[in-house]
Amino acid sequence: MPVVIKNLKYLRNSYSIDLDLEISSFLYEWDTYSGEILKNLKSFDRKYNYEHGTGITIFRHLLARKILTTDINIPIDLHGDVKTISYDSEQIVEEGLA
Fold first, then answer.
1. Residues near 97 by Cβ (< 8 Å), separated by ≥ 6?
2. Distances in whole angstroms, Cα of residue 86 to Cα of each of 48, 51, 52, 68
3. Candidates 3.40.250.10, 1.10.10.10, 1.20.1600.10, 3.50.50.60; correct CATH number of 3-94?
4. Which one of 22, 48, 83, 87 is most buried, by most CB atoms within 10 A?
5. Residue 66: pLDDT above 70?
6. Tens digits of per-residue pLDDT, 50-63?
7. 19 pLDDT more than 80
8. Residue 98 banded pLDDT, cuts 50, 70, 90
9. Looking at the predicted structure, is the pLDDT value of residue 87 above 60?
10. Domain boundaries in the chain?
11. What is the pTM of this model?
């Protein structure tokens, strides 16, 4: 199966979630992250005392909404480096998250 299809399947159920407060916290923290994505997502959950997996859910949601961006032709890898992901500040404003 092509990488693009796998990535889209990974994100398809993440477009709509009800975690507005957590999304704001996540975006606030994103610029401070370095190293492995998963390590940072787990740290986010612990720091804010969120349910295990909340950071991953928000990460997938923000990718699905194109707020966080990556090369869709490369597999989305939670063990990859945070630097492979960027965010679109215009999209953040457009979505009303700023």
1. 20, 23, 24, 27, 67
2. 22, 25, 23, 6
3. 1.10.10.10
4. 22
5. yes
6. 999 999 999 999 99
7. no
8. low
9. yes
10. 3-94
11. 0.86
- Residue 65 to residues 12, 58, 70, 81, 95: CA-CA distances in angstroms? 10, 10, 12, 20, 9
Contact assessment for residue 72 and residue 78, using Cβ atoms and an 8 Å cutoff: no
Residue 94 token pair: 């457009």
Rounded to 5°, the CA angle 81-11-68 comes to 45
For 56, the token pair is 């991953």
Burial track 42-54 (b if 16+ CB lie within 10 A, e otherwise): bebbeeeebeeeb
